[in-house]
Amino acid sequence: MSISAPTQLDIQKIREEFPVLHQQVNGKPLIYFDNAATSQKPKRVIEKLTEYYEGYNANIHRGIHTLAEKATRAYEDTREAARIFLGADHIEEIVFTRGVTECINLVASTYGNEFINKGDEIIIAELEHHSNIVPWQMLCERKGAILKVIPVNDHGEIELDAFKKLLSDRTKIVATNHASNSLGTINPIQEMITLAHEKGAVVLIDGAQSAAHLPIDVKALNVDFYCVSSHKMYGPTGVGVLYGKRELLEKMPPYMGGGEMIKDVTFEKTTYNDLPYKFEAGTPNIADVVAFAEAIAFVNELGKENIHRHEAELLAYATYKLSKLKGIRFIGTASQKVSVLSFVIEGIHHFDIGQMLDTRGIAVRTGHHCTQPLMERFEIEGTVRASFAVYNTKEEIDSLAEGLTRVINFLKS
Ligand code: 7TS
Question: Rounded to the nearest whole angstrom, what is the distance from the C-alpha of residue 70 to the centroid of ligand 1?
């Protein structure tokens, strides 16, 4: 996957590529631990945006002038980079969206409207982000279908036996995330895909939290739909990729109607464009798609294995350091995790912790992380979540541990 990946990452050198990291927040050096919400962007991504707007901004596909051709080529180059990144066979299988939320809504609206009927069942898991719950609920409401939910155990791991019991000939779609944004759990998606296929169901995987951290090979997985957000993998906001098997995308009706997604329009009848353009109505987010290629190259050049190894070290270190804090309870203790550490501290509200850490320049996320049913499962309102990226360091984790000690002492005194 990565051609020139080094075996040992130089984290200080990597940090230099991220301008936003080099600032003071509330008089302290910024420590950015909110990477599961969105990662920071390296200079090469930011520069690509400027280069595009200063050099060849033009609308794509329709123009024959030089700028339009250059912009079109750059946009389509990103599609090819995304295809390789995901391990897809065909360029037609790569659809640009605004993010994972739009990917899931697209599938729920088009595949769902076409193929889901009354009494059909859709299975998701208890640890889904709201964007992998609500579109399916909406579909079930429209169609009279039934939403079933796989429980998680006390570690926050999907109960595979319960999943097997939920599967039946009525199961038409299984949708879950590759990794949980609230807990970090890496789900056994390969097994789940195989089991779902045995029942004839299609599988959608929400890859929002995996794309920057875990290897992805849609062909080896034999997954039907896989969704990625650029902004969680060092790329710009407003870009997502929906991978879909060509034979499925071909059978699906379009999502939005408008320019670009058509072949021919008369008032009597419209014929639709070929894949993937059938799903890309209107002027897309050209600049951000163009710059997304730089984010893909950034991840490829570092190497996913190297990124994962560094982040796993950070996670182990943070888990160890924070386990010493009085009253701390980790939420999400799965054996396989991406670099997300969620916790509550007895007697202290998570918002207060987040606010006080911010005064020390430390950015963490607090709340339900758009996973309210999961919070209910653990009988909590929310957590404090520290999520790590490749540019984070053990020294920053020391500062987090020290900050938390002070917060606990202050708020409990
Ligand atoms: N699925 C998962 C697992 C996510 O973590 C997120 C965003 C989404 C879907 C939606 O992605 P989007 O790019 O369309 O917004 N998660 C978070 C988070 O944990 N904090 O802020 C956003």
Answer: 32
Question: What tokens does 8 get?
Answer: 């040992």
Domain-ending residue, one of 269, 300, 331? 300
Which residues are near ligand 1 (CB < 6 Å)? Answer: 36-37, 99-101, 129, 131-132, 177, 181, 206, 208-209, 229, 365, 369-370
> Ligand 1 centre from 272 Cα, in Å?
31
Point out which residues pair with 344 in neighbouring strands: 329
| 271 and 322 belong to one structural domain | no
Q: Which atom of ligand 1 is nearest to the CA of 179?
A: 3
Are residue 131 and residue 194 in the same domain, yes or no? Answer: yes
Domain containing 246: what range?
46-300
Question: How many domains would you assign to the chain?
Answer: 2
The question of whether 103 is a catalytic residue gets the answer no
- For residue 61, which of 76, 77, 82 has the smallest C-alpha distance? 76
* Same domain flag for 218 and 328: no
22 and 59, same domain (yes or no) = no
Q: Indicate whether 321 and 270 sit together in one domain.
A: no
Atom of ligand 1 nearest to the CA of 237: 13
Kindly state the tokens that stand for 355. Answer: 């606010």
CA 208 to centroid of ligand 1, rounded, Å: 6
Q: Which residues pair with 226 in a beta bridge?
A: 205, 243
Q: Look over the chain and give the mean of its residue pLDDT values, rounded to a whole number.
A: 96
- One-letter amino acid at 73 equals R
How do residues 94-112 score in pLDDT, each as one tens digit?
A: 999 999 999 999 999 999 9
Q: Which residue has the higher pLDDT, 260 or 393?
A: 393
Give the distance (Å) from ligand 1 centre to CA of residue 247. 28
Q: Which of 300, 323, 347 is the last residue of a domain?
A: 300
User: Is residue 1 included in any domain, yes or no?
Assistant: no
Going by C-beta distance under 8 Å and a sequence separation of 6 or more, which residues neighbour residue 254? 110, 261, 272, 278, 279, 281
| Ligand 1 atom nearest to CA at 128 | 3
The model's pTM: 0.97
CATH at 348: 3.90.1150.10
